[in-house]
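Researcher: Sequence recovery benchmark, item below. Answer with residues only.
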């Protein structure tokens, strides 16, 4: 008996790229058909802008008779103002001899004689630069902001570290706070707390709270359960366990929380000058408004010096071994330095002598003009090529496409990359932006962000891969990255403005050099985190260096690379909005105009909200991609 095999015809399988290509063709056809319709052009006199401006006028008129202000918000403002005046009065009373001696002594106790002498030199540099009073005002503002941030953030962080429920509730709030560009904090705070030092301190406090809460919660949650169980078995109460087990064991990580809070505060106090906060921000904003790097540079150098000194001091405390303190020699030296500084207060003038200042504004402006003239051909070529090849075509595409088509495209991309929930979140953000009336300017900002992120990721991947594969190169690059991540965001506008004047590309260039360092670090750490056994197996199988990178290291470092993309997007968006001060236009310009021109406050306020929505949209898409399994893993499961 014979049997014949009946073969069933196999179904025709389309290649993987067919479906995405088909969807892309449909979107392209829809764009060609509906181009120029439903574009939602920007209207400076939109009703929602005028309504917010009228709300501000009403609040200003009723600030002293409305119960919310009279019995709550005004008291907060008065308390923060009193605290700032207290710190400022103490620093002014110490004068430059006292501040130099006390700061040097504290730094010496924290990290030894090198950091102590660096603190003395750094504090003296504020005077040499002719910025003594502005630097003292900035120190007072940072001290108040950090004190309030830690007073609120550390208890919340401890609570979140001890309670998973609290951590789940507070995490989304912290995510949104860290996504929000710095400008977005200013409009609501100016609305409720007016302008001046108290509003600037409160804005800085809110901006710098998230790392205090996050890192404290992480430090508490990582305390050894064995130590906690041993404490409980010995009859310790929850309060005793907290103060004798959790906090001592988490001390070094919590010192890092203090350090990051200080760094965030220094980034914010400069921008807070837009709501009349005192300090070095005034010199930087004035230089930006006049496009004069010579005015900005001394203040930028002073901010960098302050950031580096505070960073090194706090990191020395964080890296110190538990139960170890300064030696007797360090105690004596620090005491002598502090006493000498205080003793010189009645002898020397409290303000830095004008005869010991150095003014190099004219020289810097001349050098910038020489650089602009000498490098005009190179910088103009780079700027024009990027503008014509990337910025203009992408902006024309986004601003001429119907708003509903852009929303559908974002929904499709987000769904494909991150899943249903992030896609719906992204769609909701875009719909809210459309309702706010800033669609056109949001698309212009999105254009700048996309181009800046593209350049950032290319540069970050190249530098990160090079550092991961060459320990010698990594050793050279790491100190540069450390210094770059210490500097406040505004400092990056200095070289950008010097090279490219006030244009959209200036904001892109500043965004790239601001966002590249964390991207490089994450890529490097991700590739180095690939197990050595996997690398050895691939090498023994005959893989070349290029095959090892493309087929093993990059795929296995996917999570770290996606996280790098997420951080690059968030930091780029923050910097692009700041770039409104140097010609970036769009939402950043709207925010700046809203602060500088009272009739446009509503437009600036709404632009700040749109910036937050844009940031949430981009963040959720990339975070969703980070959490999803790789395509290979999805296929295997």
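Model:
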């Amino acid at each position: 008996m014979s049997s014949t095999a009946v073969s069933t015809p196999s179904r025709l399988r389309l290649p993987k790229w067919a479906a995405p290509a088909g969807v892309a063709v449909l979107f392209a056809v829809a764009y060609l058909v509906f181009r120029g319709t439903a574009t939602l052009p920007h209207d400076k006199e939109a009703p929602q802008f005028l309504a917010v401006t009228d709300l501000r006028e009403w609040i200003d008129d009723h600030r002293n008779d409305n119960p919310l202000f009279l019995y709550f918000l005004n008291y907060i403002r008065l308390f923060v103002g009193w605290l700032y005046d207290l710190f400022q009065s103490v620093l002014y009373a110490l004068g430059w001899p006292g501040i130099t001696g006390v700061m040097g002594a504290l730094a010496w106790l924290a990290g030894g004689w090198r950091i102590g002498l660096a603190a003395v030199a750094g504090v003296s540099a504020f005077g040499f630069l002719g910025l003594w009073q502005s630097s003292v005002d900035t120190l007072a503002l940072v001290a108040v902001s950090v004190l309030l941030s830690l007073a609120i953030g550390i208890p919340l962080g401890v609570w979140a570290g001890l309670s998973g429920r609290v951590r789940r509730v507070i995490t989304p709030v912290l995510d949104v706070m860290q996504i929000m560009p710095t400008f977005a904090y200013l409009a609501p705070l100016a609305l409720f707390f007016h302008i001046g030092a108290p509003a600037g301190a409160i804005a800085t406090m809110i901006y710098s709270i998230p790392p205090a809460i996050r890192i404290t919660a992480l430090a508490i949650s990582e305390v050894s359960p064995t130590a906690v169980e041993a404490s409980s078995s010995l009859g310790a109460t929850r309060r005793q366990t907290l103060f004798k087990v959790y906090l001592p064991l988490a001390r070094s990580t919590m010192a890092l929380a203090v350090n990051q809070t200080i760094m965030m505060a220094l980034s914010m106090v400069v921008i807070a000058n837009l709501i009349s906060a005192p300090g070095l921000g005034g010199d930087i904003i004035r230089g930006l408004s006049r496009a004069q790097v010579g005015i900005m540079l001394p203040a930028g150098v002073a901010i960098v010096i302050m950031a580096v000194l505070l960073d090194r001091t706090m990191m020395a405390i964080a890296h110190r071994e538990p139960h170890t303190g300064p030696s007797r020699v360090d105690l004596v030296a620090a005491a002598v330095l502090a006493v000498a500084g205080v003793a010189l207060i009645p002898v020397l003038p409290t303000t830095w002598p004008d005869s010991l200042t150095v003014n190099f504004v004219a020289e810097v402006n001349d050098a910038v003009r020489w650089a602009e003239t000498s490098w005009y051909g190179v910088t103009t070529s780079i700027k024009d090529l990027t503008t014509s090849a990337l910025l203009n075509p992408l902006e024309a595409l986004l601003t001429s496409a119907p708003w509903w088509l852009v929303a559908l495209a974002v929904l499709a991309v987000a769904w494909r990359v991150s899943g249903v929930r992030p896609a719906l979140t992204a769609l909701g953000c875009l719909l809210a932006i459309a309702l706010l009336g800033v669609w056109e300017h949001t698309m212009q900002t999105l254009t700048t962000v996309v181009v800046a992120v593209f350049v950032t990721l290319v540069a970050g991947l190249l530098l990160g891969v090079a550092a991961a594969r060459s320990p010698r190169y990594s050793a050279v690059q790491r100190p540069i990255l450390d210094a770059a991540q210490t500097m406040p965001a505004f400092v990056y506008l200095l070289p950008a403005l010097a090279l490219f004047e006030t244009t959209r590309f200036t904001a892109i260039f500043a965004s790239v050099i601001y966002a590249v360092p964390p991207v490089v670090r994450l890529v490097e750490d991700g590739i180095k985190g690939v197990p050595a056994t996997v690398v050895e197996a691939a090498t023994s199988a005959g893989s070349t260096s290029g095959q090892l990178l493309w087929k093993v290291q990059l795929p296995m470092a996917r999570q770290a690379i996606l996280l790098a993309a997420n951080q690059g997007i968030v930091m780029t968006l923050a910097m692009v909005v700041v770039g409104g001060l140097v010609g970036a236009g769009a939402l950043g310009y709207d925010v700046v105009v809203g602060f500088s021109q009272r009739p446009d406050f509503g437009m600036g306020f709404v632009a700040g909200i749109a910036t937050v929505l844009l940031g949430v949209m981009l963040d959720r898409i990339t975070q969703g991609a980070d959490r999803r399994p790789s395509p290979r893993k999805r296929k295997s499961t």
